[in-house]
């Protein structure tokens, strides 16, 4: 089982190590689109929108993605692509087009082996296989309880010792990553199970009233309030939260402002205020504090798996653990190939 | 006789060219995804040009762009935010459409199967 699952676990580890630092790697590949020199006060969303509209012949704006940090650019979503803008000068830095990239491929491989429903099942069951492998590895290690490497890499027990030592030292993060990844892989089933166990209602008040709004009439009327006014209204609803996305009413029927409480690394981004573009009334809002226990458990599970739960330190642990996976797969395969040469004695040593 | 033949041809062609104007509901299921996503699509056909809106429900609708009807084939696009949706549907009877959906965002591309039926 470990041999078959090993191939997919190898894919999980390699792609996971890329995804652990995806935003940073993405900026590394696109520095001219990502970074700006902070200086003065940032332009309003309306001014940024005007700068983009001038350059793109009045193409409608779908949404604004305000900058997350003073040295990172803002983004404006258009139907034709995502425009990166210097929020201090209004300079258009360039456009990112939609389509598969190396990072998208890594994600697709990690989640579904880039092959639809079959791949999705293979990858989530590989998580289960990894959990079983870790348990069996612990069982095999236990009698000898050996940590450390004897001799050089050409010596008989080198790979055996590497596999054992690396495995036992990284057992805890590997178990956590495998368990949280498996839960993510079976998220729908986990959500159903959690809802049943906790007998919580998934429905939240107010949401249905917003859903009942009539569809926008064509042609679309110019909104009466500006995106900056919508942001101010949303901020008034959620003091201390930082807006990270402003969707225009032409796309979805109302302003939708997403906000983040950076201190809440688990569910801080699960805040949304929907605003009527004519009256400025708040149609409904959802807050991270409104999440049910089941939803919070799943959000925590995801934050642990991605390393977001404790910020940079936990992301580094996730990256290291992902890198270790291929080492364990390769050393395990080497041991299997050379299995006739090695014999494990009763005390767990190799001879 | 010639006139009758032309009339028959026109009737046959006309019968095939059912207008897709109306409200359509159904789902799309992304390949490798866990569940189906509901869809409400409001179409207005004018010749071979298609306009309207689409979204997960009647309240959250996104304008259709580049809509075309070519025989049995119905194609249109929309932007829901980071994602761009490209529908390529075929009529399966007067009140059903099936086909493919391509979803693209920066870095990602996914495909889905769409099934729709006319509700109005």
Please specify the SSE layout and strand pairing.
The complex is a heterodimer of chains A (351) and B (120).
Chain A: H1 2-19, H2 22-29, H3 31-34, H4 45-55, E1 63-65, E2 74-78, E3 81-85, E4 92-96, E5 99-100, H5 102-112, H6 116-141, H7 158-169, H8 171-185, H9 187-198, H10 207-211, H11 227-237, E6 242-247, E7 255-260, E8 271-275, E9 282-286, H12 293-306, H13 312-337
Antiparallel strand pairs in A: 1-2, 1-6, 2-3, 3-4, 6-7, 7-8, 8-9
Chain B: H1 2-16, E1 22-30, E2 36-46, E3 49-55, E4 62-63, E5 65-70, E6 73-79, E7 84-91, E8 96-118
Antiparallel strand pairs in B: 1-2, 1-8, 2-3, 3-4, 3-5, 5-6, 6-7, 7-8
- Looking at the overall shape, the CATH architecture of chain B is Beta Barrel
Total number of domains of chain A = 3
What's the CATH first level of chain B?
Mainly Beta
Ends apart, CA distance between termini of chain A: 25 Å
Tally of DSSP helical segments of chain A: 13
Order of neighbouring strands in the sheet with most strands of chain B: 1-2-3-5-6-7-8
The quaternary structure here is heterodimer
Q: How much beta of chain B, percentage-wise?
A: over 45%
The end-to-end distance of chain B, rounded to whole angstroms, is 39 Å
Number of helices of chain B: 1
Characterize the biggest β-sheet of chain A.
8 strands, antiparallel
Strand content of chain A: 5-15%
Q: pLDDT average of chain B, as an integer?
A: 89
N-to-C SSE string of chain A, H for helix and E for strand? HHHHEEEEEHHHHHHHEEEEHH
The chain-level structural class of chain A is alpha+beta
Order of strands across the biggest sheet of chain A? 4-3-2-1-6-7-8-9
Determine the structural class of chain B based on helices, strands and strand pairing: mainly beta
Q: Which geometry of chain B do the CA atoms define? A: globular
Radius of gyration of chain A: 25 Å
Radius of gyration of chain B: 16 Å
